[in-house]
Amino acid sequence: MGARDRSSVWTGCLVIAAIAIGVAQSAGAQESATTDQTRAAVITKLQTDKIPTLHPYEPNRAEQLIDRAEDMFINGTVHWHPFFQSAYAGGGFTLGGGYITHVSAYNTLDLRGSITFSGYKRIEAAFTAPRVLNRHGVLSVVGGWREATAVGFYGIGTANTSSNDRVDYGFRQPYLSANLDVYPRRRYLVVGGGLELSQWNQQSGSGTAPSIETVYTPSTLPGLGAKPTYLHSQGSLAFDSRTSPGYTRRGGFYGISYHDFHDADSRFGFGQVDYDAIQHLPILRETWVLSLHGRVESTLDKSGEEIPFFMLPALGGGSTLRGFASWRFRDRHSLLMQAEWRVMANRFMDMALFYDAGKVASRTSDLDFDGLKSDYGLGFRLHGPIATPLRIELAKGNEGFVIVFSSKAPF
After folding, report:
1. Does the pLDDT of residue 63 top 90, yes or no?
2. pLDDT for the residue numbered 185
3. pLDDT bucket at 284, cuts 50 / 70 / 90
4. Model pLDDT, residue 201
5. Cα separation, 71 vs 149, whole angstroms
6. Is 230 strand, coil or helix?
7. Do the Cβ atoms of 322 and 374 come closer than 8 Å?
8. CA 311, 276, 232, 137 torsion: positive or negative?
9. Mean of the per-residue pLDDT values of the chain
């Protein structure tokens, strides 16, 4: 074979090899493209298969019942609603209900009443207009009648009274009040004012303890048997950054209010100044909250008039010193301090460890930290976004255990 023939053979081999490589590359590219298409088709199919299973979260039966209860107790979407507020603190377990309806786009009228096993009664009508003064004011008008049959009285002061000294008294009271809270353009500032006309008809007690007139006389206890008619006017100024007074996990309230109780007979009139401070400190994205509360109530004399015993500032009961009976301590001035460690159990339930301390005194200079009465305990709260319709707590003071049932937040 000549040189030219050998060159032709090599050239032919190179051409065949090039064609083979090209065919292989083409086949590989087609295979790769086919594989990519197959993978894309598989992914698309999987996604398509998942689409029919995607749907909004559906609450279970228990959550549906809770949502329904929340609507009834808190959100006001149901006209008929429970009403668990007693006529007066210390009346015991309360049963009641009401009917609320809109009388305009935003204004509501609530007709409600309650009764306790000890005979405390309350019936009232409440009109609320939440958007007056170009949406800067909230107006409420409340009229009603209440009766308490066995309110505890243990004497005057903190140190010199005993739980064994209890006597009972009762009263009946018709009342009509109007209150306006104004929220100026300045953020969080609240200016309030109100008027109330009421008559206190103090009566004998019907509880298991002796009736008050069997132990005291009008000369030893101012206001015993009295029936004063009060025109109660008040004004307040506060800084309020809470979500809602009924339930919040952050913010604070700092306020001062003045009350004037004008007696039509000029016998039992007096004034009163209240100082209130609340702060909620969220921890771990509000899962935990440290809540603090301090309050001072101080009465002011009017010349020639006395303060009836049943109008004196008092401590004891479900929102003050929870480890003591309602109205356990009374005097002209009072000091209260409270702290709570609140833990969110779920979206509608909180738990809390709490500590209360306070005292009453005949002089403001005696409102110090000496001789404080204190208690501690554990609480559970059923709540919504802005309200606490049920609070159950077990508190321990130096006079024993107290179980608290309440339809509002402690502070």
Report:
1. no
2. 77
3. confident
4. 97
5. 33
6. strand
7. no
8. negative
9. 88
One-character DSSP codes across 36-77? HHHHHHHHHHHHHHHGGG-------HHHHHHHHHHIIIII--
- The model's pLDDT over 323-335, given as tens digits with 9 standing for 90+, comes to 999 999 999 999 9
pLDDT of the residue at 101: 95
> Nearest-CA neighbor of 149 among 178, 175, 121?
121
Q: 400 falls in which pLDDT band (50, 70, 90)?
A: very high
Q: Tell me the mean pLDDT in the region 293-317.
A: 97
Decide the pairing of beta strands 108-116 and 121-131. Answer: antiparallel
Residue type, 332: R
pLDDT at 307 > cutoff 90: yes
Structure tokens at 340: 């709570």
pTM listed for this prediction: 0.81
Report the 3 state secondary structure along the chain: CCHHHHHHHHHHHHHHHHHHHHHHHHHHHHHHHHHHHHHHHHHHHHHHHHHHHCCCCCCCHHHHHHHHHHHHHHHCCCCEEECCCCCCCCCCCEEEEEEEEECCCCCEEEEEEEEECCCCEEEEEEEEEEEHHHHCEEEEEEEEEEEEEEEEECCCECCCCCHHHCEEEEEEEEEEEEEEEECCCCCCEEEEEEEEEEECEEEECCCCCCEHHHCCCCCCCCCCCCCCEEEEEEEEEEEECCCCCCCCCCEEEEEEEEEEEEECCCCCCEEEEEEEEEEEEEECCCCEEEEEEEEEEEEEECCCCCCCHHHCCEECCCCCCCCCCCCCEECCEEEEEEEEEEEEEECCEEEEEEEEEEEEECCHHHCCCCCCEEEEEEEEEECCCCCCCEEEEEEEECCEEEEEEECCCCC
3-state secondary structure of 165: helix
Confidence of residue 24 (pLDDT cuts 50, 70, 90): very low
Task: Name the residue among 144, 157, 149, 89 with its Cα closest to residue 312.
Answer: 157
- Cα–Cα distance, 122 to 71 (Å, whole number): 24
* C-alpha torsion angle, residues 32, 34, 36, 42 (rounded to 10): -150
Entry field: residues in the chain:
411
CA separation for the pair 208, 217 (Å, rounded): 20
